[in-house]
From TrEMBL:
PANTHER family: EXOCYST COMPLEX COMPONENT 4 (PTHR14146). Keywords: Exocytosis, Protein transport, Transport. The keyword Protein transport applies. Signal peptide: none annotated. It comes from Anopheles melas. InterPro entries: Sec8/EXOC4, Sec8_exocyst_N. Residues 34-123 form the Exocyst complex component Sec8 N-terminal domain. The keyword Hydrolase does not apply. GO terms for biological process: chemical synaptic transmission; Golgi to plasma membrane transport; protein targeting to membrane; protein transport; vesicle docking involved in exocytosis; vesicle tethering involved in exocytosis. Component of the exocyst complex involved in the docking of exocytic vesicles with fusion sites on the plasma membrane. Residues 399-439 are annotated as: Disordered. GO terms for cellular component: exocyst; growth cone membrane; synapse. Coiled coil: none annotated. This is Exocyst complex component Sec8.
Length: 987
C-alpha cells in the first residue's frame, strides 16, 4: 500500500499544472505524516516495556552466539592442529614401521650371511665323512640364497664364486665315487679271490699285501655291523639286496660310520646328488676311470714313503759317522733322491705320452731333459774297493737281483742286474686277462724297482740305441692304459701338484723349476701344442679359404636340434666354434698355458674374420668392382650406417634380442616370444626411415644391375648373418668365462709338512691356485666378437636396405611413362601394373627364403615399415604424372591393394599405410571444393605438398589453367591446414 500511495503522489504531482496545486498536495501529505508519526509514537510508548525486554534478550542471545562462534572457531583450529599432528604422527609411525621391517630384513640377511659363512666348513666336514647328500643339499641351498635374496651383496662375490667351484669339484668327486662303485667295488670280491689264487710273482705281491687286506676286510666287516645297528635301511638292503628308491625320497643317515660300504645304498645317494646338482644329463654316461692318475698317485705316495725312509737312514748314517768318527764319508742329500725320482717319473711319462714315437727333432729335444743331476746319488751306492774296510751295505738282496736268477759276480752283483730290468711282468707266465687285472700293482712295483735301479747303476739311463728300444718293449706290457699324447691333459694338473711338492722338498727358488717341471713344460709347449691342437685349429681355418663350398654348406637338422637352434648355420662356423670350445677345455686342462693358447686363438680368429669378410664380399659382389649394388654401396658410408642404427626399429630389435638372450640364459622361455604392436607404434618407428629413403632414392631410378635379383644370394647372406651373430655370442661367452679364475681343483695327495714325510693313504687335497687370464687378452677376444657381430649387423642391414631398394626399382620406373597424355600404349585394364606384380612375386620369394634362414624378429625388421615406404613411393608417383583418369586411379588403387595383400601376408598385420595411399588416389574422384570440405570435416590426412600436387593434377585433368583460380584454391588450402590439426597418418 505504501508503494501504491507513493505512485499516486507522483502521478498527482506530475498532473499538477500550477505551483498552488503542488503546494496543497504537499500540505496534505505533511498532515498525513504527522498523524502517522503521532500514531507511531503512541504505539511505541504503549509497547516500550516489551521492546526493551526484546532488545535485552536479543543482545544477550547475540552475545552468546558470538561467544559460541568463537569457541567453535577455537575447536576447529584445535581439530585442524590435531589432524595435522596425527598426520605427522602417522608418517612417523609409518617410517618407524618401514624401518622396523627393513631392520628385520637386514637382520635376516645378516643371519643368512652368518650361516652362509659357515657353509665351507660344514661342506668340508660332510665331505670328509662322505655325507654327499647333506653336502649337496647344503651347497645348492647356499647357491640359491647367494644368487637369490643375497644377490646384491657384493661382499659375497668371492664366496659365491667359491660355491660354484665347490659345485664343480663336488660333481667331479661324485663322478669319481660313481666310477669306483661301478667298476671297482662291484668286482672287488672276484679280484680278491683271483689274487688269493694267484701264483708266482703275483702270489709274492699278494702275500706282501694280504695282512693289510685282511685288516681292511676285518675293519670293514666291523663297520658294516655297526652301520646295520644304526640304520634300518641297511637291514632292508641286506634283506632285499637293493634299495627301493621308488617308495620314498632318498634320506642320508649321518650316523653311518662308513656310508659307502653298501654300494646299492651309496649309488642311490650319488644319483640323488646328481639330480640336486642339475647334472643328470652330464652324469648319465659316466666317464671311465683314468688308471694313469691312480698310478701316478700311487707312485708318488711310494716316493714320499721312500723319501721318509731315506731321511731316517740319513739320520742314522749321520749318527754313526759322528759316533765312529768316519770323516771320509760324506752322506748324500735328500735332494739328490728327488732328482732320481724325477728321472723315474720322466720314464713313466715317456711311455704313456708316447714320446718315443714323435719326430726325431722332438726326441732330441726331450732327450736333453733326461740328464741326471750334477751330483749323482748313484755314486754313493757304487761298488768301491776300500782297503781294510767292509762295505756298508749291498743290493744283492734286492728284488731285481733275486728275480734275475743270474750267477753272482765276484763283486757281489748278479748277472741279471746288468740287464737293468724295469718291468717284472716280463718274467711272468700270467695270461693277458690276469695281466690286465694286475697291471696297476705291477707297474707301481716296477716304478719302485726303477728308482732302486737308478740308485744301483753307475750310468744314468738315456733314450736312444738298441737298449732303449729293448727296454721300451719290455715296459709296453705293463701299461695300465694305451699310450697317447692326449693323456697329458688328464695328468697335467695332478702332475703339477706333485711337482709343487717336489719343488718344496728340494727347496727350489722362484724361477728355478725342477727338471720334471721343465720336462713337462717343454713337452706341452713344443710337442703337444705345437704339433697337435694348435696345428689342427690353424689347418681348419686355413682350409676355409680354399674350399669352394665352405660358405654354402649348412649344418644338419640333427645338429640344429642338438644346439637348440631354429635357423641353420654354416658348417664351417660350427667347426671353428668346436675348435674354440676344444681350446676352452684345453685351457681348463692346461691353465698355465692360457696366454699362449689365447694368443693363438686371437690370431686365428683374426684370420677367420678376414675370411668371413671376404666371403661377404663374394656374396654381395661376386663380379668386378664396376658393378654397383646400391644397398651395399650405401652401407659403405659410415653416416648412413650410423643413421640406420640410430632409428627406433634397429634399437628396438637389439633391445629385444638382448632380452631374449637373458631369458634364454635364465631358462625362463623355450619358445620364441610373440609381440603385439599397434599400427601407430609401427608407423612411429619407421616414418623417419621412409622419409630419408624417399628423399635420397626418390631422384632418378635404380637399374636392374644395381639390385640383388637372385634370391639365393639373399639366402646366403641371411645364413651368414645368423652364423656370424651366433659365433660372436659364443666368443663373447668364451671371453666372459675367462674372467672367472681357473681353479686347478683336485690335483694330488695331501702335501706333507716336512720333506719326505708320508701322507695318509687315500687322502687328497684341493689345490686352490687360480690362474687368472690377463684383462688385455679378454678385451682382444671381446673386440673380435664385436667385429663378428658387426659383420652380422652389416649383413642384416644389407637385407633391410635391399628390400627397400627393390621397391624403388619396381615402383619408380613405370608411372611417369604410363600416365603421359600422348602414350598410345597405356594399359586400360584394371589389373595391377606388371612391375607391381613382379614386386609382389619378389617380396614373396624373399619372405620364403628369409623365413627359413633368419630369426622371426629379424625377418620382421627386414619387412616391417616397407608398407610406409611403398605408400610414399606410390603417392610420390603422382608428381611425375601429366594426367590421370578414372582407370588410372583404379589401377593405382589396385597397385596399393596388391602390395597391401602381399605385405599383410608377410608381416601378419593390416598394413594401414597402403590404405592411405589408396585414399590418396581415390581423392582424384572429388572436385577441389569437395577436397577442401573433407579437410574441414575429417581433418587433413596428407601433407600440404601432397594436397597441392593432387590439386594441380586435378586442375590439369579438368582443363583449369587460370592462375587466379588455382591460386585461390591454394590459399584456401593453406588457410585450412594452418588452422586444422592433421588427424590422419602422414606417409
Amino acid at each position: 500500500s505504501g508503494c501504491g500511495l507513493l505512485v499516486s503522489v507522483i502521478k498527482t504531482l506530475d498532473a499538477s499544472e500550477t505551483n498552488e496545486q503542488r503546494e496543497r498536495e504537499k500540505l496534505k501529505i505533511e498532515r498525513e505524516f504527522r498523524k502517522t508519526d503521532q500514531r507511531l509514537n503512541e504505539l511505541v510508548s504503549r509497547s516500550d516495556g516489551d521492546l526493551t525486554r526484546v532488545m535485552q534478550l536479543f543482545g544477550k542471545v547475540s552475545t552468546e552466539v558470538t561467544a559460541s562462534r568463537e569457541r567453535i572457531q577455537v575447536v576447529k583450529e584445535n581439530l585442524q592442529s590435531c589432524k595435522q599432528l596425527l598426520r605427522c604422527r602417522r608418517d612417523e609411525l609409518k617410517k618407524l614401521y618401514t624401518d622396523a621391517i627393513q631392520h628385520k630384513y637386514v637382520l635376516e640377511m645378516l643371519d643368512q650371511i652368518t650361516e652362509i659363512r659357515k657353509v665351507p666348513a660344514q661342506l668340508t666336514a660332510f665331505l670328509a665323512k662322505k655325507h654327499y647328500l647333506h653336502a649337496t643339499k647344503l651347497l645348492m641351498a647356499s647357491i640359491e640364497t647367494t644368487d637369490g635374496k643375497l644377490k646384491g651383496v657384493e661382499g659375497l662375490n668371492d664366496l659365491r664364486q667359491d660355491f660354484q667351484n665347490r659345485r664343480q669339484q663336488l660333481y667331479g668327486k661324485l663322478l669319481e665315487e660313481l666310477n669306483k662303485h661301478l667298476y671297482v667295488s662291484s668286482t672287488v670280491d672276484v679280484l680278491q679271490n683271483f689274487q688269493r689264487q694267484a701264483s708266482g710273482r703275483n702270489s709274492q705281491y699278494a702275500a706282501g699285501t694280504s695282512p693289510f687286506q685282511r685288516n681292511v676286510l676285518r675293519r670293514s666287516a666291523e663297520r658294516v655291523e655297526a652301520n646295520t645297528k644304526a640304520r634300518k635301511a641297511l637291514f632292508e638292503i641286506s634283506k632285499n639286496g637293493f634299495l627301493d628308491v621308488d617308495k620314498s625320497e632318498i634320506i642320508e643317515d649321518t650316523e653311518l660310520l662308513d656310508p659307502d660300504v653298501n654300494s646299492s645304498y651309496f649309488l642311490s645317494i650319488i644319483v640323488e646328488c646328481f639330480a640336486l646338482l642339475q647334472k643328470v644329463p652330464e652324469s648319465i654316461e659316466p666317464a671311465q676311470p683314468v688308471p694313469i692318475l691312480e698310478l701316478l698317485d700311487l707312485v708318488f705316495k711310494q716316493f714320499k714313503l721312500i723319501a721318509n725312509a731315506h731321511q731316517q737312514a740319513l739320520r742314522n748314517y749321520g749318527n754313526v759317522i759322528q759316533r765312529y768318527n768316519i770323516p771320509q764319508v760324506k752322506p748324500y742329500d735328500i735332494i739328490e733322491y728327488w732328482g732320481q725320482a724325477q728321472a723315474v717319473l720322466k720314464l713313466v711319462l715317456t711311455d704313456y705320452l708316447d714320446i718315443q714315437n714323435d719326430s726325431g727333432d722332438e726326441a732330441l729335444l726331450l732327450r736333453g731333459q733326461f740328464a741326471e743331476q750334477s751330483t749323482n746319488v748313484n755314486a754313493f751306492f757304487s761298488r768301491r774297493k776300500t782297503p781294510g774296510k767292509k762295505l756298508l751295505f749291498r743290493f744283492d738282496k734286492s728284488s731285481h737281483t733275486a728275480d734275475a736268477g743270474g750267477p753272482q759276480t765276484a763283486d757281489g752283483d748278479t748277472g741279471g742286474s746288468k740287464e737293468h730290468r724295469r718291468n717284472l711282468s716280463n718274467v711272468s707266465n700270467s695270461t693277458p686277462k690276469e695281466e690286465a687285472l694286475l697291471n696297476s700293482s705291477a707297474v707301481s712295483a716296477n716304478s719302485s724297482h726303477l728308482l732302486n735301479s737308478s740308485f744301483h747303476q753307475h750310468q744314468p739311463y738315456y733314450f736312444g740305441g738298441k737298449d732303449a728300444a729293448a727296454e721300451r718293449r719290455k715296459r709296453e706290457r705293463a701299461l695300465v692304459c694305451p699310450a697317447d699324447a692326449s693323456l697329458v691333459r688328464k695328468i697335467y694338473l695332478p702332475l703339477m701338484g706333485y711337482i709343487q711338492e717336489i719343488e718344496s722338498f728340494m727347496k727350489c727358488k722362484s724361477g728355478q723349476p725342477c727338471s720334471l717341471n721343465t720336462f713337462l713344460a717343454n713337452y706341452v709347449k713344443d710337442a703337444y701344442l705345437a704339433r697337435g691342437h694348435n696345428r689342427n685349429l690353424q689347418l681348419t681355418i686355413e682350409s676355409l679359404s680354399k674350399a669352394q663350398d665352405a660358405w654354402r654348406t649348412i649344418i644338419s637338422p640333427e645338429e640344429m636340434k642338438r644346439l637348440g637352434l631354429t635357423r641353420p648355420l654354416l658348417q664351417n662356423t660350427l667347426i671353428v666354434e668346436n675348435r674354440i670350445a676344444e681350446t676352452k677345455k684345453l685351457i681348463q686342462d692346461l691353465p698355465t698355458y692360457s696366454d699362449e693358447l689365447l694368443k693363438m686363438v686371437c690370431s686365428l680368429l683374426k684370420t677367420y674374420r678376414e675370411t668371413c669378410q671376404a666371403a661377404y664380399r663374394g656374396i654381395v659382389q661376386p663380379e668386378t668392382e664396376d658393378k654397383r649394388i646400391y644397398s651395399v654401396a650405401w652401407l659403405k658410408d659410415d653416416d648412413i650406417t650410423r643413421f640406420l642404427k640410430s632409428l627406433p626399429n634397429w634399437t628396438d630389435l637389439k633391445s629385444s634380442n638382448a632380452r631374449l638372450r637373458q631369458l634364454q640364459q635364465k631358462r625362463l622361455m623355450k619358445t620364441e616370444p610373440s609381440e603385439e604392436e599397434s599400427p601407430t607404434q609401427v608407423q612411429q618407428r619407421n616414418v623417419r626411415e621412409a622419409e630419408m629413403l624417399t628423399s635420397n632414392l626418390g631422384e632418378g631410378g635404380i637399374s636392374q644391375q644395381e639390385i640383388l635379383s637372385d634370391v639365393g644370394v639373399l639366402k646366403e647372406l641371411a645364413i651368414l648373418q645368423e652364423s656370424m651373430e651366433w659365433f660372436a655370442s659364443r666368443i663373447t661367452e668364451f671371453a666372459h668365462d675367462l674372467k672367472k679364475p681357473i681353479v686347478n681343483g683336485l690335483v694330488a695327495a695331501s702335501p706333507v709338512t716336512t720333506p719326505g714325510s708320508p701322507s695318509p693313504a687315500g687322502t687328497a687335497t684341493i689345490v686352490n691356485s687360480p690362474v687368472i687370464v690377463k684383462d688385455g687378452m679378454i678385451k682382444v677376444l671381446i673386440n673380435l666378437a664385436l667385429e663378428f657381430e658387426e659383420l652380422a649387423n652389416t649383413c642384416l642391414l644389407v637385407l633391410h636396405l635391399e628390400v627397400r631398394v627393390q621397391c624403388f626399382h619396381y615402383l619408380r620406373s613405370s608411372p611417369s611413362d604410363r600416365y603421359k597424355a600422348n602414350n598410345p600404349n597405356k594399359n586400360d585394364s584394371l589389373e595391377p601394373d606388371a612391375k607391381v606384380l613382379k614386386l609382389t612375386k619378389v617380396l614373396s620369394d624373399m619372405d620364403e627364403a628369409l623365413s627359413s634362414t633368419l630369426h622371426p624378429r629379424k625377418t620382421k625388421y627386414v619387412f616391417e615399415g616397407l608398407a610406409h615406404l611403398a605408400a610414399r613411393i606410390l603417392i610420390m608417383a603422382a608428381n611425375s604424372m601429366e594426367y590421370i583418369d578414372h582407370s588410372g586411379v583404379q589401377r593405382m588403387c589396385r597397385n596399393a591393394l596388391a602390395l597391401q595383400q602381399t605385405l599383410s601376408s608377410i608381416t601378419a598385420s593390416r598394413e594401414v599405410a597402403l590404405d592411405y595411399a589408396r585414399s590418396f588416389y581415390e581423392m582424384f574422384y572429388l572436385d577441389p571444393e569437395e577436397i577442401l570440405t573433407s579437410i574441414v570435416e575429417k581433418g587433413a590426412q596428407f601433407t600440404e605438398m601432397q594436397y597441392l600436387n593432387a590439386l594441380q593434377l586435378i586442375f590439369r585433368n579438368r582443363g583449369i589453367v587460370d592462375p587466379a583460380v588455382v591460386g585461390t584454391y591454394q590459399q584456401k588450402l593453406s588457410d585450412l591446414l594452418g588452422t586444422k590439426p592433421a588427424l590422419g597418418v602422414t606417409v
